[in-house]
Write a structure and sequence with these properties.
Blueprint (H helix, E strand, L loop, with lengths): L1 H4 L8 H5 L13 E5 L8 H14 L5 E5 L6 H5 L5 H6 L13 H11 L6 H5 L1 E2 L5 E3 L5 H8 L5 H4 L2 H10 L5 E5 L6 H10 L1 E6 L8 H15 L7 E7 L7 H13 L13 H8 L4 H6 L1
Parallel strand pairs: 1-5, 1-6, 2-4, 2-5, 6-7
Antiparallel strand pairs: 3-4
């Protein structure tokens, strides 16, 4: 992805970035990829990912696909109001679980021969969010997928299914893929880590946990050292959530995390805002809520 990272784009000037069509810098047969991963809930992980996807698609010109791998929860789908009958329709066979199937090629060929488009399996998986990005919802079948992956002894085979799926069916359709996974390092989550190599971590700072920043770095290092296939895993972005830079505590946490993550830390935290909750109640992001 050198054509993107070495493009000379004004990365430190968001206003200037909005004037660019970043999608033009992404090769047609590749995607930018990142996974939102943190080992506990309550950090605004899914909310942050949803908003990042909308910004990337609507303001930065990146055709964006969101993928949910959180099994029964499907919080990302709920965030965009895809629930009830709509979710049932979106998670009929095939589902994201088929991305981990050895016969995905045959499934794709069957759908192409039976369908009205030439998009194959991707056309049946991805649904519009109504705010720009498309979404592949999670599936309850992922629990069974995780167990079946445990029966594969070769790590290179066990953890490469999602990477192969994205490379074969997604890369030529989208510029950016953002993946939401549960906190535990399951076989499915490990597939997402391998497929993306870039980790986005939202953090809700705690005044009682003075080693919080160090733990984040240590967790990424532990995964790199423990698994050869994750040797190039990279902590790409850390975002503080439910923090205000206008408060003493907020400024303290920002200073603490800037020292620990001088490159990775997002310059602006996600504030603890009632507007975010109001938007969630309406099953939309803040961007759609503000425009209502």
């Amino acid at each position: 992805m050198d054509t993107f990272t070495n493009s000379g784009l004004p990365w430190d000037d968001y206003g200037a970035l909005r004037d660019e069509n970043l999608g033009a810098y992404v090769p047609d047969d590749e995607t930018l990829r990142a996974v939102a991963f943190v080992d506990k809930g309550g950090t605004s992980k899914t909310t942050s990912l949803a908003h990042m996807g909308v910004v990337a698609d609507q303001e930065l010109g990146l055709d964006t696909l969101l993928i949910a791998l959180d099994g029964k929860q499907n919080d990302l789908a709920t965030h965009f109001g895809i629930e009830g009958d709509d979710l049932d329709a979106a998670t009929r066979w095939p589902t994201i679980a088929q991305a981990f199937a050895p016969n995905i090629d045959q499934i794709d060929e069957r759908l192409r021969s039976e369908g009205d488009t030439d998009d194959g399996v991707l056309a049946d998986l991805a649904v519009p969010t109504g705010e720009g990005p498309d979404l592949i919802p999670a599936s309850e079948e992922l629990d069974g997928v995780d167990k079946s992956l445990s029966d594969i002894d070769d790590p290179a085979e066990r953890y490469s299914f999602l990477d192969d799926f994205l490379s074969q069916y997604v890369d030529d359709q989208y510029d950016l893929v953002l993946i939401d996974v549960p906190g535990s390092t399951s076989n499915v989550a490990a597939n997402a880590l391998w497929a993306t190599k870039h980790v986005f971590t939202p953090v809700r700072p705690s005044p009682l946990d003075t080693k919080q920043a160090a733990k984040i770095r240590a967790e990424i290092n532990e995964k790199r050292e423990r698994h050869d296939f994750l040797s190039d895993l990279e902590l790409t972005m850390v975002v503080l959530s439910q923090v205000s830079s206008q408060t003493k505590a907020g400024r303290y946490f920002l200073d603490q995390f800037r020292e620990a993550f001088p490159v990775e830390l997002s310059p602006v935290p996600v504030r603890d805002s009632q507007a975010v909750i109001n938007a969630q109640l309406e099953r939309e992001t803040l961007f759609a809520h503000d425009s209502d």
